[in-house]
Design a protein that fits this description.
This protein has one helix spanning 6-21. With 23 residues, the chain is an all-alpha fold. The chain starts with 5 loop residues before the first helix and ends with a helix.
């Protein structure tokens, strides 16, 4: 099982949100 650090998860989430925002 791969565990992502909270900071990594937050970064991925913010990047996903950015892609949605600037689509």
């Amino acid at each position: 099982e791969h565990y992502e650090k909270p900071s990594v998860r937050r970064k991925k989430k913010s990047e996903a949100a950015r892609k949605r925002k600037y689509k």
